[in-house]
Design a protein that fits this description.
The protein is mainly β. Helices cover 8% and strands 37% of the residues.
């Protein structure tokens, strides 16, 4: 189980009504970044794997079998990649469960702006990231299980995101739904982004400029994912496989 800032977070309500072709299973360690538990295909170019964790829902769900593929061109913004966890920093966040699978939202030369309050990506190269409700996906609740904040919880809602002509669905936290004992402490622990905290001048927004050879990886399920907001930029050498075009949507 992944523990971030001594706060363990679990699902208290299932994410329902996912795409009809996919089956949803609830995992207590839902905050863990989505990762590959086993690469069991021997194919060199198209390794197969099983997804665990909920950080890339609703697009990828736990226990889904997916196919990766080797890439030969430069990684593109919004592509989903398998990331070697041994090549990213874990001095400020714990991750013990194998490779990450994340969406690249920043490529060399990009400027990203985030809101620190909830870790949301606001713009890419000055273009605003737009979202609209995605009612076909049910909301879910995240609740603390630690003694000092037990019972504190908030709701996450699905939204269709669009920027630069690319669209996909994400989950975002609704901070106005935060309730329960110790809710302010729970918020600080659940929405703490060590890397972004180093990139702010006003304590409200963080600006990140991506240097050559580096990438910014982000979870589609923003509230539960561990990604570059926590561990920092990802070197190109850590990008092992990309997911096929069907999975990218």
């Amino acid at each position: 189980m992944l523990v971030v800032n001594k706060e363990t977070i679990v699902f208290t309500r299932a994410l329902q009504k996912l795409q009809s072709r996919k089956k949803w299973l609830i995992w207590p360690s839902a905050i863990v970044a989505t990762f590959f538990a086993a690469i069991y295909g021997s194919a060199h170019f198209y390794p197969a794997a099983i997804v665990y964790g909920a950080s890339m829902t609703p697009g990828l769900v736990p226990q889904e079998r997916i196919i990766g593929e080797r890439y030969f061109d430069a990684p593109q913004r919004h592509q989903i990649f398998v990331i070697d966890q041994n090549q990213v920093k874990h001095d400020k966040v714990t991750h013990v469960n194998g490779p990450y699978i994340k969406r690249l939202v920043g490529v060399p030369g990009d400027k990203l702006v985030f809101r620190l309050d909830d870790g949301e990506l606001l713009s890419i190269n000055g273009e605003a990231v737009k979202t609209i409700p995605a009612p076909e996906y049910d909301a879910f609740e995240l609740a603390s299980t630690l003694k000092e904040t037990k019972g504190a919880k908030f709701t996450g809602f699905a939204r269709h995101l669009s920027v630069s002509g690319v669209s996909y669905t994400v989950y975002q936290a609704a901070l106005d739904t935060l309730t329960g004992p110790g809710k302010n402490l729970f918020k600080k622990q659940a929405f703490n982004y060590p890397f972004l905290n180093e990139k702010t001048s006003d304590g409200k927004y963080a600006s990140v400029i991506i240097p050559d050879g580096m990438y910014f990886a982000l979870s589609d399920n923003r509230p539960v994912g561990i990604d570059s907001r926590h561990f920092g930029l990802v070197p190109e050498s850590a990008l092992k496989y990309k997911l096929n075009s069907e999975t990218q949507k």
